[in-house]
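Our preliminary data section would be incomplete without showing what the modeling component actually yields. Below, a chain of 340 amino acids is followed by its predicted structure, encoded as tokens that our downstream tools consume directly.
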Amino acid sequence: MPLLNEQTSKWMREKEYIAYLGALALLFSYAEMFLPRTLPFFRLGLGNVVMLLSFTLPFPSYILLSVIKAFAASLMAGTLLTPFFLLSLGQSVSSAIVMYTLYHLFSWRNSGKIRFISLYGISIAGASASSVVQIALASLYLGEGTYALLGPMVLFSLFAGILTAFMALHLHIPQIAPTLSENASKICLHKKSFVVTTAVVIAIAAVFILMLDDLKILGVCLVASVIAQRVSGRKILLTPHLVMWLFVVFANILVPSGKVLYSVFSFGITEGALLVGILQAMKLSAVSALSQCVASLRPEGDSLVALTLKYFRGLSNAMRKTNGNIIKKIKFALSSKCLV
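Predicted structure:
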């Protein structure tokens, strides 16, 4: 019996720490929302800073953290119920496997310094793997035209990998999760049954929308989804939808299909490709709005998701309490031993 209690206590401490790391990934994803962004796939992936500082975790816990990071990023971006979540999940897990393998197979420590391969090399390798997986998975939904972005994305991943490694080298993550005050626990207001039921209903609605091919019905669903987002208390931002529409339509018209409507030099915009692009864009806009509804849910209890959200609220509160640039704010939040 004492051994069982000890194992239970150890798992609770590990779960709290993973939830804290997941909240940090959510915090970095939240901070990234304030940076300019022009295309859906071109993200800096600041959540990878947490992954670069968590190599001491056991492999199963590290992979679990990568799943939480994908969930957190999709939650912030409003893509949790869209095909983009599968992209985020695939790239996050594959990137984690690459980085964890490189760190533990090809690095050794001497006086605290990594040899054979630097943290910059590990970060760039992980970012590159992420780009390749994202494009490969995106092509399954958006078509082969997506491969036109592979080259620019790999170059962008070079910059993103260097930036995340630089931040990781200048930040320190505590080895023990900070204490949560009672105020931090008050964010979880919804009963587990309500959260599960609501999430299932929203997920079913999202699947139904993704299966539609009628423009009129899709239009009605899009309006209803936006209204649901507003009712749930989430802000409606038009820019992300506009950027997504432009990208999805452009990716589709790169692969001609059907009657040529317009010609620009030797390139023709075809009716079939344009229609498919509009249909896909409407679907993604509608399910993105529904994803924002999911983001408004606050589960009670001590589940991994509930704990992650509690820590995130505490970290974001701590970050808002200090002045200065984003690095200074994050450092202050990381140094907090009690989150309120």
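The radius of gyration is 21 Å. Residues 112 and 169 are 12 Å apart (CA to CA). Preliminary results of this kind motivate Aim 1 of the renewal.
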